[in-house]
Amino acid sequence: MGAEPMELSEKTLSSEILYQGKIVTLRKDTARLEDGREALREVVEHPGGVCVLPLEPDGTTYTVRQFRYPFGRVVEELPAGKLDGPEDHRLAAARELSEEIGAQAVEWIYLGSLMMSPGFCTEVLHMYLARDLRHGQQHLDEGEFLTVRRLPFEELVEQVMTGKCQDAKTAALVLKAKEYLRREAGGIQ
After folding, report:
1. Residue 189 reports pLDDT greater than 60
2. Residues of the chain above pLDDT 90, percent
């Protein structure tokens, strides 16, 4: 406890791009640590994304089920997607909601952002609660296949709490939205 406080920083000495793909770039950096030693850092650069919890006045919401290749199975999650370059995240949220469930929202409530895996990835995800929905036609991206499910919001909360829903962005947004709605209803701060 009596030690000098550290700056808690690392200085990039060199950087090399190992792979540049459609969604991510993989970089290998050499960094100087607090104690003067050097360390390798692998960084996945990602443009960031959005996640939307669409909520109806009757307390129901919508999830999408899609096959997630890295896990080899279908995952149920809230509508979400990546940012297209320097795109405004609110506009991206509206685009994803429209594409994936065919809805537009009149009311958008920003519930903050998350660093998805700060140990190795630059992805920041922006979360929105969308209300006063207007429904239209779903229009998926080419090569995107998913099904939409309508369910009570409280059922989705239970799936998050029991671990049935394992998607991190969905779990975080569901719990943030639940707390937001509790406070909005006059719950204790």
Report:
1. no
2. 88
